[in-house]
């Protein structure tokens, strides 16, 4: 008989496919493809995002191909539109990814506003999302931490909402707990923190808030020991999710004894 203290079944499903891991990882900024392979393997991630405009997936014959070390038979490859600054280029990039990956429909949409902040251009993001969903893509969308915009993107048909927790690559951690909670409470699709995580505790906080998953790249790739950090992030995401499911104790403004004294014998 199973113990009542064990966590219940907790599947993570995107676009109808269930994954064991709630950690999604990127492939940029590593020293070489071998370090990329080892770190992704250590992370336990099932979904690996790839910048189509910056990574060779076979479009550049004779050059190292990421798919030689990240086998699509073992990972879900999530092509993304990093480096796009308007809806038209983002849509073209997704179409290229679909061609390179034999009709692959799951994509990560990001349309940036400027190179300094890498904040999303929400107007172009909405336009691109509408076009891609209409063309049959399953769109996971990087966006600002705006609950109203998140609902709009969900209404368009995006399969996951991916709000930033802090600027891309900043490592500042979770800077916007209130707005993230608002998005989580309203959403009927998975909410995945995308950008801002710097270390394992940040990933745990995101999961404890109720996020469905966390996506990261820089926090692992720029660590002193990327493979070790990948392991830490795997544990942090799992720990944070378990804590969320368990339900934390209430916060109090006063002390509460760990060992109750009610009913004890007094001399």
List keywords for this structure.
267 residues; 8 helices; 5-stranded parallel sheet; alpha/beta; 34% helix; 15% strand
Biggest sheet, spatial arrangement of strands: 5-4-3-10-9
Q: Mean of the pLDDT scores?
A: 91
Overall SS class: alpha/beta
Largest sheet: 5 strands, parallel
| Number of continuous helical runs | 8
End-to-end gap: 44 Å
* Unreliable parts: none
Q: What Rg, in angstroms, do the CA atoms define?
A: 20 Å
Shape: globular
- Strand elements, count: 10
* Percentage beta strand: 15-25%
N to C succession of SSEs: EEEHEEHEHEHEHEHEHH
Helix content: 25-40%
Mind explaining what this structure looks like?
With 267 residues, this protein is of the alpha/beta class. 34% of the residues lie in helices and 15% in strands. The protein has 8 helices and 10 strands. It has helices spanning 33-43, 87-100, 122-134, 147-156, 177-186, 200-208, 218-221, 226-246; strands spanning 12-14, 17-19, 23-26, 47-51, 76-80, 106-109, 138-143, 160-163, 192-194, 213-216. A 5-stranded parallel sheet has the order 5-4-3-10-9. The chain has a 3-stranded parallel sheet with strand order 6-7-8. A two-stranded antiparallel ribbon has the order 1-2. α3 (122-134) links the parallel β6 (106-109) and β7. α3 runs parallel beside α4 and α6 (200-208) packs parallel to α8. The N and C termini lie far apart (44 Å). The relative contact order is 0.14. The mean pLDDT is 91.
